[in-house]
């Protein structure tokens, strides 16, 4: 019998007391729960029946959850547990992050998404995904504002649902790859199976940045139309959609959402470095370093001038002494002539 999602709050499932519903998406429902054995809050996600009933998907899900449990990065939500309920529903347990998703912040308090805040989130996200790929060959495949949690205490990013992503090379029996249509890369929609590494996530990341910076998603309409646009339409350059956008950042985003995966940046490290350079420049760090260099050159120039001064002073002193010697010699000669003249007169 399938799980009755509507009546689970207040019940205990596999050692987790479900307290309240935190949210739901295209894959399942997430609850705030209490792990009874350790008396700690956790996020408890139940997958929808269409995924739990897919035997191949369930096997991949458990394998991916085990890999996700090995991840240890400050910007990734920690995976704690996974399994099946007595009626066969798959579940996934994660650390509970007290905060809001970037999607909620955008909807409720868009003024909080300043450029500095957005760059900080983007750099943290690139760092987390670089770690997952380099260490475990894991991609996310569903980058979107709803999966980016911002912790209340320190505004740190925590990336959610990485444990539900496909490890590179694994797919469901029908070749299905999970993705949210608004942010899906063309090759993911086409299900080409091409090994493009992290470039599909980079595309989704770029679409998300385009949306947040321009104030609107690049593509609109029904799901089929949005998917067609991802495959065929090129959105206006970001700087055209938002003339106030930083030119270097706009150029990066435009490159990230290229249709051809190999026209996008090749890895997360390159993206992280570019984003960090942009943030430093905008915050004045680059200008400050340039000013420091100018000051250093000025100090060196001053030191060189000071060192040259004694030499020029020495030359002047030598000339002065020569003049004084000449005057003294002239006075002595005059005195001798005077004495000799006086003697003859006597």
SSE blueprint and pairings:
Elements: E1 12-13, E2 16-24, E3 28-35, E4 40-47, H1 49-52, H2 55-68, E5 79-84, E6 90-95, E7 99-101, H3 102-108, H4 115-136, E8 148-151, E9 157-159, H5 186-190, H6 199-214, H7 223-232, H8 238-241, H9 247-256, H10 268-282, H11 285-345
Antiparallel strand pairs: 1-2, 2-3, 3-4, 4-6, 5-6, 7-8, 8-9
Compute the separation of the termini in Å. 151 Å
Order of helices and strands: EEEEHHEEEHHEEHHHHHHH
Q: Can you count the beta strands? A: 9
User: What name does the CATH topology of the largest domain carry?
Assistant: Transferase(Phosphotransferase), domain 1
Q: How much helicity do the residues have?
A: 40-55%
Q: Can you tell me the CATH class of the largest domain? A: Mainly Alpha
Number of H/I helices: 11
Parts with pLDDT < 50 across at least 5 consecutive residues: 167-175, 286-320
Please identify the structural class as seen in this structure.
alpha+beta
Q: What is the CATH architecture descriptor of the largest domain? A: Orthogonal Bundle
Mean pLDDT: 82
Major sheet characteristics = 6 strands, antiparallel
> What oligomeric arrangement do these chains adopt?
single chain
Per CATH, the superfamily of the largest domain is Transferase(Phosphotransferase) domain 1
Strand-residue fraction?
A: 5-15%
